[in-house]
Amino acid sequence: MELYTVEFLSGKDYIMLGTVSGSIVKAKNVVSDFGQSIKNIVGGELKAYTRMMESAREEATQRMIEQAHKMGADAVIGIRYTTSSIMAQAAEVLVYGTAIHYKN
């Protein structure tokens, strides 16, 4: 599956199949949360949270790709990511775009 952030592909003939998306809600790990709290006091990157959000983006992207495959898509264009806090210890990652199928 080809993934693009651009709104359209020049030089390609395709049809738009519709919007596809993938999301996941991830909660903080209590054990790593303790270590991250200390890091928050002294400053620096919260690496456990960085890894958690990277993992969440990857899983949300895979869910979007699965949805696009079911529609018969060859690619997804106009991909965008967004995050939101669901509660104090959880965040949602949402990815969306437009599924397309190349014409022969």
Question: How do the helices and strands line up, and which of them pair or pack?
Answer:
Layout: E1 2-3, E2 14-27, H1 30-42, H2 47-70, E3 75-87, E4 90-102
Parallel strand pairs: 1-3
Antiparallel strand pairs: 2-4, 3-4
Walk me through this protein's architecture.
- The protein is α+β, with helices and mostly antiparallel strands.
- It has helices at residues 30-42, 47-70, and strands spanning 2-3, 14-27, 75-87, 90-102.
- 16% of the residues are buried.
Put simply, the count of helices is 2
Terminal CA distance reads 17 Å
How would you classify the helix and strand content by structural class? alpha+beta
- Overall pLDDT score: 88
The percentage helix is 25-40%
**SSE ordering:** EEHHEE
The best one-word shape is elongated
Q: What Rg do the Cα atoms give?
A: 17 Å
Main sheet record: 4 strands, mixed
> How much β-strand is present in the residues?
35-45%
Q: Regions with pLDDT < 50 over 5+ consecutive residues?
A: none
Main features:
single chain; 104 residues; alpha+beta; four-stranded mixed beta sheet; 2 helices
Give a quick precis of the structure.
The chain has 104 residues and is α+β, with helices and mostly antiparallel strands. The protein has helices at 30-42, 47-70; strands at residues 2-3, 14-27, 75-87, 90-102.
